[in-house]
Design brief:
Shape: globular
Number of strands: 11
Structural class: alpha+beta
CATH topology: Phenylalanyl-tRNA Synthetase, Chain B, domain 3
Radius of gyration: 17 Å
CATH architecture: 3-Layer(bba) Sandwich
CATH superfamily: Phenylalanyl-trna Synthetase, Chain B, domain 3
Number of domains: 1
Helix content: 25-40%
CATH class: Alpha Beta
Order of helices and strands: HEHEHHHHEEEEEEHEEE
Length: 259
């Protein structure tokens, strides 16, 4: 939202880079969304195709979820969607035009659409996102301009955003909009609506940080559970060249985390 892996994918240099990765929720976002919680999970792997076995196992659960939400009307009444619609309104964007990632996925699932992308990493986190009912995204650590990611309000004057599969003017910036960023580079618009083409995961991604966020206390545990599920599933593969770090949580009381 991604295969012969390079043999040096877990070199000391890369491990040192990962140890310097930091994430922070800025005070401006915490002022707007005091309950904001962000979970982060770093995984390194030699061959993303090893995740195919997991996506095959999880795909069967999607039809069950589709049946469960088939009679929900409107779909926006689902708590997993409603809470994000409230958040988007607070960011001065139209929730009916800009959908959170979980709303976009659940709409497709309800219609019976295939949500697979052919990219093992993306397919895995999309499936877990739907199963748990929480947004989930990922960034390629090797594409970041530095080892720092921040969730902050946008600065329309200096920020740059190159949306994946879209045009920048279709995703206007405003002072109320929360974004993931590295310096002036926006990694994801509207917290979880659209990733940047410059930092998204792809077929070559080997070191990845997965994020799941919540703007309410009730959904914070769901986001953490989704990431813990992902960590457990990948660890359980027992695949060579896979390193799964502990899930870390940033919130009002602990806004900065590091790996």
């Amino acid at each position: 939202m991604r295969y012969s892996a390079p043999s040096d994918s877990l070199t000391p240099e890369k491990c040192n880079y990962l140890s310097q990765l930091t994430f922070q929720i800025n005070p401006d976002v915490l002022q707007k969304f005091p309950p904001m919680t962000v979970g982060a999970l770093v995984i390194s792997l030699d061959d993303p195709s090893c995740l195919d076995a997991l996506t095959d196992d999880l795909s069967g659960k999607i039809s069950e979820i589709a049946r469960r939400i088939s009679d929900v009307d409107p779909i926006t009444s689902l708590p997993a969607i409603a809470v994000w619609r409230e958040a988007y309104a607070a960011m001065s964007v139209k929730p009916s035009k800009f959908h959170s990632s979980i709303e976009a996925l659940l709409r497709r699932v309800k219609k019976g659409d295939d949500i697979s992308t052919g990219l093992p990493v993306v397919d895995l986190y999309n499936l877990i996102s739907v199963i748990h009912g929480t947004p989930m995204g990922a960034y390629d650590l090797d594409k970041l301009p530095d080892g720092k990611i921040t969730l902050r309000l946008a600065n329309p004057v200096v920020d740059k955003f190159e949306p994946l599969g879209g045009k920048a003017d279709s995703f206007p910036l405003n002072d109320d909009l929360a974004v993931y960023a590295a310096g002036s580079e926006i990694l994801c618009w509207g917290i979880n609506t659209r990733d940047s083409v410059r930092t998204c995961v792809d077929n070559q991604s080997r070191s990845i940080v997965f994020m799941s966020e919540a703007t309410s206390g009730a959904m914070a545990d769901v986001a953490q559970s989704a990431l813990s599920d992902l960590a457990g599933l990948v660890t359980g593969l027992g695949a060579p060249g896979v390193v799964v770090q502990d899930v870390q949580i940033a919130d009002q009381s602990h806004p900065r985390i590091s790996f």
